[in-house]
Amino acid sequence: MDAISRVSGAYADDAARWQAVQARDAGADGVFLYSVATTGVYCHPSCAARPALRGNVAFHDGRDAAERLGFRACKRCRPDLAPRAEREAALVARACRGIEAAEEALSLDALAAAAGVSPFHFHRLFRRIVGVTPKAYAAARRAAKVQDGLAQAASVTETIYEAGFGSSGRFYEAAEGMLGMTPSAWRDGGQGEAIGFASGVGSLGCVLVATTAKGICAILLGDDAAVLAGDLAARFPRATLGEDPAFGDLVRRVIAYVDAPGDGIGLPLDIRGTAFQRRVWEVLQRIPAGETRTYTQVAGLIGNPKAVRAVASACAANRLAVVVPCHRVVAGDGGLAGYRWGVDRKRALLRREARPVPPVAKRGG
User: Which CATH number fits domain 194-259: 3.40.50.1000, 3.40.50.300, 3.30.160.70, 3.30.750.24?
Assistant: First the structure.
């Protein structure tokens, strides 16, 4: 059966098809093909080849029809193969499977060679489709293996080698970044991990601040300190949680920052999340106070314009309110959309951060 069988009403007549060819409309790929009498080739409508004269162009519903008339496939857009987007997605999917199955980390050169493209092209393609670099994807998959392994394995040693680490030294060097605590503590559900927290009240309601030995791991906003403490406990069910009176000054500093957000809190942070979430949060932290970005813009800034929903999910997963300023991300029409700690709080934060427009200087008479 012909690989191209769809006929769209939008390209039903030759005039519409010619317009699509002139515009190199990728949306018409898979709907029809066109051939050029002077070159003897047939192409996708989006082909980047030199434009042909209208009198030399004919349209075909599929490659079989074009080839029966003696035309051959263009070497540039390859209409005899699956659409380019499908081929690229398949290439990256194979690379992902290779990364996941590898016993040790694969180099960029090895991944590119297996895909049959240059390292530069492979890196750019992988990041565009997956949303993270091959190295970050491999690290995230390895972290997932470690987390799953520690939850199921009888010992940390088993997990070290099952996750693809060649030595225990390399594993323990990476463990803190993957887990945020020692491997044994993770395996035991956070047992032994000391997390201190304290609450206070600011203009936006209750603020809970929690820290590990590494830094602030959570800033939660709400109406009830007990509810916020329960949220913290759910994340580390077997950690040692405790309110710490010594946190008074820290809580006051955090509340002052929440009440008057700036471009940096100046305190150590313990940011935990997947590789993709971290990339999103890094972009959010670069949005200046007084400015906003849409979810689509953030997706573009991380190099994956189609990951709008994933960006929204990363914003919702943020546990460091205001410090990782997910409140500065708005809908495409400027609407506030959702906010983990309530749209009213988001509106209040944006109103506080709004920078007055300087008056236009009057020209002298």
Answer: 3.30.160.70
- Residue 272 pLDDT: 75
Q: d(Cα 159, Cα 156) in Å, to the nearest integer? A: 5
Predicted model pTM? 0.50
Q: Among this protein's residues, is 96 annotated catalytic?
A: no
What pLDDT score was predicted for residue 9? 58
Q: In this predicted structure, what is the pLDDT of residue 142?
A: 66
**Which residue among the candidates 43, 77, 96, 315 is catalytic per the annotation?**
43
| Per-residue b or e along 1-27, where b marks 16 or more CB atoms closer than 10 Å to that residue's CB | eeebeeeeeebeeeebbbebbeebbee
Indicate the CATH number of 9-73 among 3.40.1380.10, 3.30.200.20, 3.40.50.11290, 3.40.10.10: 3.40.10.10
Q: Return d(Cα 343, Cα 331) in angstroms, integer.
A: 12
Our answer to whether residue 315 is catalytic in this structure is no
Q: How far is 62 from 80, CA to CA, in rounded Å?
A: 10
Question: Which residues of the chain does CATH 1.10.10.60 include?
Answer: 82-188
Identified catalytic residue from 77, 206, 217, 326: 326
Q: How confident is the model at residue 353 (pLDDT cuts 50, 70, 90)?
A: confident
